[in-house]
Each structure stands twice: as C-alpha cells, then as structure tokens.
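INPUT
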Amino acid sequence: MTKSNFTRRGVMKTGAAAGAAGLATPTLFTGAVWADAHTGFTNAPQGDTVTLGFNVPQSGPYADEGADELRAFELAVQHLNGEGDGGMMQTFSSQVLDGTGIMGKKVQFVTGDTQTKSDAARASAQSMIQREGAIMISGGSSSGVAVAVQALCQEAGIIFMAGLTHANDTTGKDKKANGFRHFFNSYMSGAALAPILNNLYGSDRKAYHLTADYNWGYTTEEAITSSTEAMGWETVNAVKTPLTQTDFSSYIAPVLQSDADVLVLNHYGGNMVNSLTNAVQFGLRDRMVGDKKFEIVVPLYSELMARGAGANIAGIVGSQNWDWKLENELGDRYSGTNAFVKSFGEKYGFPPSQAAHTCYVQTLLYADAVTRAGSFNPCAVGEALEDYEFDGLGNGPTLYRGADHQCFKDVLVVRGKENPENEFDLVEIVEATPVDQVTYEPDHPQFAGGSLGTCNPGA
Amino acid sequence: MEAIILQFLNGLDKGSAYALIALGLTLIFGTLGVVNFAHGALFMIGAFCAVTFSRLLNLSHTVVDESRTDFLGNPLELQVPYMYDFFGVNTGAAIIDWAVPLSILFAIPVMIGIGVAMERGLIRHFYKRPHADQILVTFGLAIVLQEVIKYFYGANPIPTPAPQAFVGSFDFGLMLGFDAGSIVYPYWRLIYFMFAAVIIAAVFAFLQFTTFGMVVRAGMADRETVTLLGIDIDKRFTIMFGIAAAVAGLAGVMYTPINSPNYHMGMDFLVLSFVVVVVGGMGSLPGAVLAGFLLGIIEAFASMAEVLDVLPGINQIIIYLVAIIVLLTRPRGLMGRKGVMEE
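OUTPUT
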C-alpha cells in the first residue's frame, strides 16, 4: 500500500501549479501524454495493486442503502480482477477492461463509514486517502455528504465518483473538477415527471409541497414546482419540514384544509416513509377534491424506502435512476441491466437497488477511464471521463458531460405496484423519459453559481 | 375551526405517546431515583416486539411454483405461512392481520423481563452514583440496544400495518356539522389515544387502589421508613421498573402502525420525553401525563401553516420555548414536588 505525502500546503502548491498549467495549455494533456505520468499525483500506485476507497453509510438511517452500495462495489472489484462472470463488463460499450485489475494492477479496496453526516464522511474519506492510500473515493447516500466529500477530494487531488446524490448542487453550484456524478438529479426528476403527471392527472391541478428542510429538499421542490407550473399546475403552498420529524400528521392536516388536490412529498429515506404513511392514514389517497381524485407524488423513489412504506406506496408516482426490471420490460436499449442483476442476484440472493447500480457503474467507469487514459493521474482520468459517451451499463446511451461532470441518460418514471408479487417487485415502470427531454444547458438557473475550476492532481 | 379541531386531535395522539413514555420515566425516577436515558430504547424495543411477533406469525415454508419464475428466471419459491397450515387460509390470514394488537400479549412479559434484567443487571449498581453517571450509563445502554436491534433488523423502517378493520379514517366533519372530509382522522390514531388513556388510568389505579401500589407510593415518599417497617422495597421498586418498561414497550407496540418502526425511533422520542418530565415536574406522575398532552397539542398547533407564516420555524423550537417559560415561572415544573433533584 502506498504512503500518501498529501498535506494541505502541498495540495495548495500543486493545485495552483496544475491550475496554472491547465489554464496555459488546456489542450496539451492528451491520453498519450498522461500515459507517461505515473507519478506526481496523490497516492500514485507504486506496487502491483491499486486501492479504491468506498465511503458509504455503514451506520445511521441509510445503513441498508450503504450495505447495498458496498455489495455492488465488492462485485465491481471482483469483476475488475477477473473473478465471477464479469457482469456489465461484458455489455459495456468500451471493451478495454480485461479482468486483470486496472492497468494490470490488482484492485483492492478500503471502506469508510459516512454515517450520513458531512463531517464524518469527510473524516472517513480523508483517512482512506491519507492512511490507506486510496486513489479514488466513491459512494454515499446523501447530497450533503457528496458535496462535502467532493470538495475534500478536490483539495486532496483525488477523483470522486459520487454515489447516490440527487441534489442539483452536486453538479451545480458545488461542482468540482475532480468530481463526477452518474446518478440523475432533481431537475431531471422534474423534467421527466411533469409530462407524465400532466397525462395522468391533467394540467389543472393544485399542488401542496412538503419539503425536507435541507439542500436536497430545496432543489427538488424548485425543480418540481418549476416543471409542473410550466404545464399549468398551481403551487398552493410549500412547507418546510424538519429533517428530524418523524410524525408528519401536523403537516398533513393543513393539506386537508387547503384546496390542493396533489401532495408532493419532497422527502427521502425515513422522512419519505413516514410522511407517505401518514398521508395515506389521513385518507389522502381516497380523497376527492371536487371531481378530482387526490394524488400523491414522491419525486425521488428508492426501492429500499418503498419497502419501508409497504402497501402505502401503491399507486404513487415518482422517478428513478434505474430499475432492475428495465431491460426485461423496455428491451435491449438498457442492456447491461440483466447482466448486472444476474451477477448481483446470484451472489447475494436478491436484485440490486439503484444505489447499488450507480456505485457499480461508477467503479467500472473509473477503471475504464484510467485504462483509456493510460494513467491513474486524476487529471488524465477526468479528461477521459469528460464528454465520454458510452452504452451497455443499464441506462442506455449515456454522456458524461464535460461542462459539469453530470451523466445524461434516460430517466425512469415509476409507480408503486398495487399488488406486488414479492418484496423486491414494488414498482412498475411507467415510462423511460428520453434523455433529450431531461437535458439542460450547463448554465441553467437551477445550476447557477460555482464552477468546476481546474483539475487537481494533488501530491 | 376545522383546522383547529384537527390539530387538537393531532396533539392528543402525539401527546399520548409523550405521556406514556414520560409516565414510565417518572415512575422510574420517582421510585428508584434513576434518570433513565435508556427509556426511549424501551419504547423502540416494544415496537420491535410487534415486528418480531408479526414475523413469528409469518414463519413460512417454501413451496415451488413451477409455472412462475423469480427475478433470475428460476422457478418461483413461494412462502406459505405455517398459520395457513394450522388454521386454514382465512383464519390464518386473519390472525396475521391482527399481529399488532396480538403482540401486546407477547410484549408485556418480554418488556417486564427486559426491565427487570436491566434494573438488576446494570442500573442498581448506579443508585448511589451521581445523576450524571446514571445518564451516561443509561445513554450508553440505549446506544447498545439500538445497535443490537439494527444488527438483527437492519436500518430501514419495517412496515407493520394495523388490522385491515382499522385502516382508514373517521370523518368527524359530518358528525360535527362541517363539510364531509374536512375533519378526517385515522382510526388507528384514535385507538392509540384511547389505548394510552386506558394504560395511564390502569397505572394510576394500580398505584392508588392496590396494596402493592400503596407500598410503592409510601416508598416513593419515604424509602427509609418503609424499609424500617420490614418491607423489601427494593424488590417492589424492581417490579415497578419492569412495569415502567412494559408501559414504554406497549406505547411502542401500538405506535408501529402510525410510523414504521426503525432502530432509531427511541432516540427521536427520548429528548422530548425528558422535556415533558421536566415541564410536568420531576417525579410527578400526573404532571408527566398533563405535560405530555399539553406539549403534544402545542406542538401540533405550532405546525399549522398559518402559524408558520407568522413565525417561521416555530414548530422546531416551540416545546423548548414552553419548557423555558414554565421553568422560569414554575422552577419545579407544573406539578413538581419540593425537594426532588434539589439537594
């Protein structure tokens, strides 16, 4: 294992130097040039192994989601090292990964516990970088954590391949040159959901929002209100709810007094399970407002959380990054899905979640970028990922946009199944919204502020 | 008007949970003088008694359905509960449907056992130690208990629904002469309130009208004199700890259909319940119940959109604000006794 010589002073000096070089000669660093550069960056692998750092919630309320991410990471490492059936490496449009690790170096990994707390996540990422020699950090189940760890990786000269993070800010005002997000975002949820909601419920609707009182809640509320108002919906109220709230009855009751006929729950995790359960208890799913049936919308779905909500999720519309039934239901466009589900299902006995999928894909994409660049240098890897188009990883044709390091691909609109056959089959796919419909300009107002800056190789 | 009635009802059921937990906390503090930070964990364990009992009723054997396949394309393995085999499909399904109410019978002995084991095994060693030590050890115990639950049950909430007969809501609007659907309230929350009222009444009756209760009250008032009379008050206080654990546990059992239980739910209630005890008055059982309902109702009203428009964020601090006002004007709480925690 390598010893890191990463210090704050060193990072600042090399970062400034790299920034200056990047500004002066932006087009000179091609893959061929990077191929000669196996030193001069943080945690450059020296032996015959390379260490990846997987920073997931192993304790706290998202521990189950973190466990699923960790399963996917383990599977990805196995596949990269030539063990197992290869999973999505068989279907990936890029075929440079050959099962011999990354550039011939056997992949090993270390893990950290984010606890879904920004400070704890930064501490565990820093430990993996400084003590364990991790060359890349991935994982996480919260936008607050993703933004914090992404900033740390930028300072340290490490690539951050984000896990489950949905807030616009991750690739908006808080984007960083060393950070990359495969998961979709709040804007995309709004853009994908709005036309479907229009078709299902009509354009003359009054929406009442309950929004988790933090960064992700705000961006999701903004995305959904702007998308739905654009098609004619009226937002009658938007109430912030404390993140620590467990009983939402006091917030649901005013909905009954309003003239709203749609409740949008901008909640995730335990908040989503509890607010949805409370809303159903108060009869909102069976409520009529005038001649319209009352509807509930959950912009960001999570299979694991849907399981927590049980039968209450039936009929509720939301959006997802990926679903394990995608290829079976919508065909070869989403190839890779079945290969991943088979590998994961045979190893663990149940289908993977979207959190597991995005983490697995991010690991393969990192390994692929290193191999194509011919270097572990973060700036070379970043360059290989920027504006990279790929396919065969379960989401259909996908672009890793260089301008903001956000992946662009189809977005799924899903609905809770009325009569699920088993605990894993909780949602049905309503539609896969084409990527063009969820694409936005890098300077879109919802992503305003901040800039990628320049890549930092660290060391 | 409808909004006020609705929030009042909300406050009653929220207050029910606060009152039940605070009642147990006060019982322990009043009898043993222990500040028990593990009391929220007992509420959580009670909820997981319901989860466990529900899983016991759902114990199944596997039947392979060759006509259908699972997600990997293998023949589908169906789980058939043994209850179906024992009682037939209809009766078996009905028993499983009633898992939460039935689990009360399972939770009472389990919670009393856990309470007695906690008191005998750990807490009694801290009777003569400062309150700070008691808080540290019981808080540590709470963390251990919740990690144990997480190890066995995971971190995700586990849906534990009410019986089908109680799914849905009651329309008070029509009954009170308002528009239909203007004041609807879930059946199970009404049941929770009535259940809390029965438990609180039972605890008070037990302490007021039984010889055991009389001795316990005497012990709470003057432990030394009762001991000098030759009564083994320690044994009775241990039983009271078990009863307090059972009260918290039953509050947890019945709470599971309201919010899916998770390992952290005890901590969510713990701090608020301590505020309730302090506002009610340390060691005062009626004070704990009164403050539980009072703070529940005030918290519900503070969450009204009209209130939040004028005072944004007031819902997050209202309970603590009320606590400060009460303690400034009545330092011993609403019904606190002189001399408790004042030495």
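end of record. Residues 2-32 of chain B form the longest helix (31 residues).
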